[in-house]
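Entry 14. Structure prediction run on the chain below.
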Amino acid sequence: MSLNRVLFLKINGLAGSYPFLNKVAVFSAQYLIFIVPIYLLYLWFKKSGKGDEIKNKALLLFTAAMISWFFSFLISSLYFHPRPFMLHPPLGKKLIPHAPDASFPSDHTTVLSALSFTYFFSGEITEGIAFLVLAFFVGFARVYCGIHFPYDIFGGVVTGLIGAGLTYTLRKPLAPVFSWCIHLWFKILRIVLK
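Output returned:
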């Protein structure tokens, strides 16, 4: 049996044995990803003397997440790997419903890792660590719940790293686009608040 399956069975084997852990894992696997839009909106609307700088950061993080997610979409379109419950016979216990689509890489882990590595590249280590821990926590929960293999999580981390690296490399060419978006936002605000 492959290491991927062995690790999956070790983690997913905990499912059902600990009711509280089940609830935490199910919640984490399904809902913790919503931290991303909430956090980006928080940054966008945060009042600060460095308003444009914070909005630039929000746009950089959003771009990294979208580019990474697009890479994840491309990979899963070109390489189909079934989820554990799609195997014959199904592998492990599935705690949450999920469409029978491609498993590799994990979109949730990809997006959270993209934010993490964007912060790392920007020299903001604390934020980078926080999002990386969150990415692994969500990834673990999704394996625990039986909808991903461990390699899907690792693939998501690598995909997020590549997307964040590309976005950070392109930050200077993207700067005028971000400035235009911020200018447009303030222009709309002035019209609305008149």
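Residues 3-192 form a domain with the Vanadium-containing Chloroperoxidase; domain 1 fold (CATH 1.20.144.10).
Filed with the rest of this week's runs.
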